[in-house]
Amino acid sequence: MVKSTRHAKYELYYHIVFVPKYRRSHLTGKTKERLEAIFAEICEDKGLELAESEVMPDHVHLFIGSPPKNAPSLIVNWIKGISARKYNQRYDDRVKWTRSYYVGTAGSASKGAVEQYIAEQEGGDA
């Protein structure tokens, strides 16, 4: 769904994947539930849309929608940094993430959608 800010229309979604330090398979049970809640909390606080989340035993997949003002690297830093800090403050067991991550873009702008947007702008002020 196309969203808008005061000066932009956008539909930006990022597929983000990252792993815990030492690739330990411990993201299960209560840890998984707690992390999913923390990811949702972070997205709400930062004005992001958490479209999908899947916490696997040894890695995390997130599908996040964001306004264009947020760089993908900033979103990843927020998610990883804040989630580790919040989790480690709230619970006895620890979560640490590796420094690496994968991020890919996903959008659904077709040639027709771009043409329609351009046609709508004709006659309007830029």
Short description:
The protein is α+β, with helices and mostly antiparallel strands and 126 residues long. 38% of the residues lie in helices and 22% in strands. The strands form two sheets. Strands 4-5-3-6 form a four-stranded antiparallel sheet, covered by helices on one side. The chain has a two-stranded antiparallel sheet with strand order 1-2.
Secondary-structure map with pairings?
Blueprint: E1 3-4, E2 9-10, E3 13-18, H1 29-46, E4 49-55, E5 60-65, H2 72-90, E6 102-106, H3 111-121
Antiparallel strand pairs: 1-2, 3-5, 3-6, 4-5
Helix pairs in contact: 1-2
Observed structural traits:
126 residues; alpha+beta; four-stranded antiparallel sheet; two-stranded antiparallel ribbon; Transposase_17_sf; IS200/IS605 family transposase; Transposase_17
Structure overview:
Strand 1 and strand 2 form a beta hairpin. By secondary structure, the chain is α+β, with helices and mostly antiparallel strands. The chain has three helices and six strands, in the order E-E-E-H-E-E-H-E-H. It has a four-stranded antiparallel beta sheet with strand order 4-5-3-6, covered by helices on one side. Strands 1-2 form a two-stranded antiparallel sheet. The chain is 38% helix and 22% strand. The chain has helices spanning 29-46, 72-90, 111-121, and strands at residues 3-4, 9-10, 13-18, 49-55, 60-65, 102-106. The mean pLDDT is 87. The longest helix is centred in the middle third of the chain and has 19 residues, at 72-90.
